[in-house]
Design goal:
Strand order of the largest sheet: 1-2-3-4-5-12-6-11-10-9-8-7
Strand content: 25-35%
Number of strands: 12
Number of domains: 2
Shape: globular
Structural class: alpha+beta
Number of helices: 11
Order of helices and strands: EHEEHEHEHEHHEHHEEEHEHEH
Length: 370
């Protein structure tokens, strides 16, 4: 790939071909923006990636590394298609600035100059590599406006596509305080009831950081793949989770019954937040309360650990909203490398369908009542 010319606003952009060669992380708050995540994604990504490229920006308030993946196919995009009940096909490979699998994107946002540099060099790379688009996924609202407001000359206006809601809650001192503050008292009481029944049935939480999760990693891979399949799309591979255990703050919150793993949240602790990133749940009749029991135990674990924010991630929106978590929209910015009006229109329609799906559980408009 040809290195793009430098912008006048930034001093030393540099390309790397391997994540292992990147400079050490500097003030990285998101696990998905770390060198360790990038290394794991090189080894065991569920996406079909032709090439990995890394842009390092060393000037400004802090150095940053941006992972750019030339991708032929992302199962997570397939999940969005299933949820939106539509079919939007890319006309060629896509250059993702961070994977759709990362709950929050936005690496390269440390300053307006970094955003401009990321877009300038990212678009040049996308064109050099024959990508149909540069895609910056999963930006919260405040970052969407930043990225849209610092677009360099030669970079087209992006399609801003609603992608999902991400759910968080400020942590109280205990599970009981969390339930007391829930907006729906019936749902809160039911969560406490299911938590009690799961505990009475013998469920025990094991918090397994890093390599301590390895004895159960194959079992979790089976459960996570089966859980995703039940929701319509194979999202994961059974081997990816062992590699992701290298990411700082990785911890498996495991529901154990008589020494056997019956469910878990694959999670990350970073910058005072507990991110519940991927779930694997045994849906057998012996353990009907596992998911809600794990949610309750995750709240208790966060409270005990001094964590300030529980981040329950994306999807399952109505359940999380009912249980007192607050959803915030995430948008994906899509910079097409050449004008494609029909594709841009289809992406906007897909985003509208995803927004309805997040709100109602259906991507279709609600018929007007007579």
């Amino acid at each position: 790939m040809n290195t793009a010319p430098s912008l006048a606003t930034e001093s030393d952009p540099r390309w790397y071909a391997r994540a292992a060669d990147l400079p050490a992380d500097h003030q990285v708050e998101q696990p998905w923006h770390t060198r360790s995540w990038a290394r794991a994604w090189e080894r065991a990504s569920p996406e079909s990636i032709r090439h990995h490229h890394y842009l390092h920006l060393s000037d400004g308030p802090r150095p940053e590394s941006i992972a750019l993946h030339l991708t032929d196919h992302s199962p997570f995009w397939d999940r969005l298609l299933v949820d939106s009940a539509t079919e939007v096909s890319w006309p060629g490979p896509v250059l993702y600035a961070g994977s759709l699998y990362g709950e929050y994107g936005g690496a390269g946002s440390a300053s307006p100059d970094h955003i401009a540099a990321t877009l300038h060099h990212g678009m040049n790379a996308a064109r050099d590599l024959g990508a149909c688009a540069l895609v910056v996924p999963n930006l919260p609202d405040e970052q969407v406006s930043l990225w849209q407001g610092h677009r360099p000359v030669g970079v087209p206006a992006p399609v801003a596509m609603f992608t999902d809601l991400s759910f968080t809650a400020t942590m109280p001192a205990s599970l009981e305080e969390f339930a007391a503050a829930a907006p729906n008292r019936h749902v809160a009481r039911d969560m406490l009831r299911q938590h009690r029944r799961g505990t009475e049935a013998g469920l025990v939480l094991h918090a397994l950081p890093g390599q301590r999760m390895f004895p159960f990693i194959d079992r979790f891979g089976d459960l996570a793949c089966a859980t995703a399949d039940r929701h319509g799309t194979p999202l994961y591979t059974r081997t990816m989770f062992a590699h992701l255990a290298e990411v700082p703050g990785a911890v498996m919150l495991a529901a154990m019954h008589e020494g056997q793993l019956v469910g878990a949240f694959y999670s990350f602790v970073a910058a005072g937040r507990l991110h519940l990133w991927a779930a694997g749940i045994d849906t057998g009749k012996r353990h009907p309360y596992t998911y809600t029991w794990l949610m309750a135990e995750s709240i208790s674990y966060a409270a005990r650990s001094g964590i300030s924010v529980l981040d329950a991630g994306r999807s399952n929106c109505r359940y999380k909203s009912r249980h007192g978590l607050t959803g915030a929209p995430l948008h994906t910015l899509i910079y097409l490398t050449c004008p494609r009006p029909a594709l841009a229109s289809a992406l906007l329609d897909m985003g509208e369908r995803l927004e309805r799906y997040a709100a109602t559980g259906s991507p279709l408009p609600t018929p007007d009542l007579p």
